[in-house]
Amino acid sequence: MKALVYLGAWDAVLREAAVPVIRKPQEVLVRIRASTICGTDLGIVSGLYGAKESVILGHEASGDVCEVGLGVSGIAVGDRVAIDPTYYCGRCWMCANGSPNHCAQKTTTETGVSSNGTFTDLYVTEDRFLYKLADHVSFQESCLTEPLSCVMTGTNQLKLRTNLDTVVIGGGPIGMLYCHSLGLRGLSGAVVETSEARLPLCAELLPPHWIACGSLQEASEKLHTRTGDFDLIVDCCGVAAKESLGRLNRCGQLLLVGLRRHPVEFDPMRIADRSQRIVGSIDSIGTFSESLQLIASGKIPAKRMISAEYPLEQFREAFGILGCDIGSKKQTSTASAMKVVLSS
Fold first, then answer.
1. Are β-strands 122-126 and 60-68 bridged in parallel, bridged antiparallel, or unpaired?
2. Residue 335: its pLDDT value, please?
3. Are 239 and 151 in contact (CB under 8 A)?
4. Which residue among 23, 98, 286, 291 has the highest number of C-beta atoms inside a 10 angstrom radius?
């Protein structure tokens, strides 16, 4: 079968890979129909995020079931399913205490990072990580369930009121999903996107009462914030923490979700004296089913967020329109697309 394999920074190749087989009673073999490119995939390919050498990339995916283990009862051959890639054992300290996203086995089971992923033809997982699709939900749309579930998990960690002066930094898929997630909780605000090519896409996809801006200052002016700063800042790009802390109100919250190394010095006395909160969030905790329902109901514009679809063989072109030029080994902020699907 075909698979997009990571060999090192800027070295991802399409090659033949061994067909995975069911080895446990609860396992299921899924024929991958669609898998979307995540910012993590861009980070891995460009060398900004670590991954196991020779791993198959990809983790936002859906497909149809082609084989089930002897212990599987709720999933049948032919079922159309979305895949939750966040494996957890359910027994370690972190799982037992409500943090399965930090399962002790994560270093060897993280789909598309330390364990083979979904940029391929066939994928094996356990039945507990599969969710059946409604007939009207496409494979492509359902791929957004995983990033949305991560966003819903992050949103759940915040103390929210509808009158918070709110800004989301980074107008990629995660940023746009945060706007919608917060919008569903009654908040309005702005998304800040510095890419001139992507800014118009953001404006078209925002929920009601949200605006797209090119800077925090522009967002403050257009939102007419009470102090000129913000009560809630969500940093989806991973490099705006310093600027964000400088624009955070007393009792403000800063949610960090972007996976980029960006050391920042801060004054802990200032954080304490101003009663500010800094929160980090990664992966999902019990939000996958809810996220799929939000997509199925149309409350999240998943279909409109998909900019393009490419066959797996054209992965270089797909990565390219997201600003990741594998040929020239350059990562830019000139992405001209939102969500891109690879189909096998």
1. unpaired
2. 73
3. no
4. 291
97 near 117, Cβ under 8 Å?
A: no
Helix runs in the chain, H state only: 39-45, 93-96, 106-109, 139-142, 145-156, 173-184, 199-205, 216-223, 241-246, 268-273, 288-297, 302-305, 315-320
In total, the chain counts a number of residues equal to 344
**Cα separation, 43 vs 172, whole angstroms:** 14
Radius of gyration from C-alpha coordinates of the chain: 20
| Residue that has been written with the tokens 């990741």 in this structure | 324
Judge residue 325's burial from the number of C-beta atoms within 10 Å of its C-beta, 0-12 exposed, 13-18 middle, 19 or more buried: middle
Cut 0.85: pTM above it? yes
Long-range contacts, 95-99 (Cβ 8 Å, 24+): 98/285, 99/285
- Pair 162, 184: CB distance under 8 Å: no
Mapping DSSP to helix (H, G, I), strand (E, B) and coil, where does residue 72 land?
A: coil
Tokens of 79: 């079922």
pLDDT digits 0-9 by tens, 243-286: 999 999 999 999 999 988 888 888 999 999 999 999 999 999 99
Nearest to 48 by CA among 255, 204, 238: 238
Handedness of CA 342, 6, 13, 87 (dihedral sign): negative
The pLDDT tens digits of the residues spanning 225-242 come to 999 999 999 999 989 999
Average pLDDT over residues 90-110: 96
Mean pLDDT of 159-176: 97
Distance from C-alpha of 101 to C-alpha of 80, rounded to nearest angstrom: 25
Tell me, what amino acid is at 327?
G
For the segment 83-96, the average pLDDT, to the nearest whole number, is: 96
Ranges assigned E (strand) in the chain: 2-8, 11-16, 27-36, 60-68, 80-83, 122-126, 130-132, 166-169, 189-192, 210-213, 230-235, 248-256, 277-280, 306-311, 324-325, 330-331, 339-343
Give percent of the chain with pLDDT exceeding 90.
90
Nearest alpha-carbon partner for 180 in 324, 63, 331, 304: 304
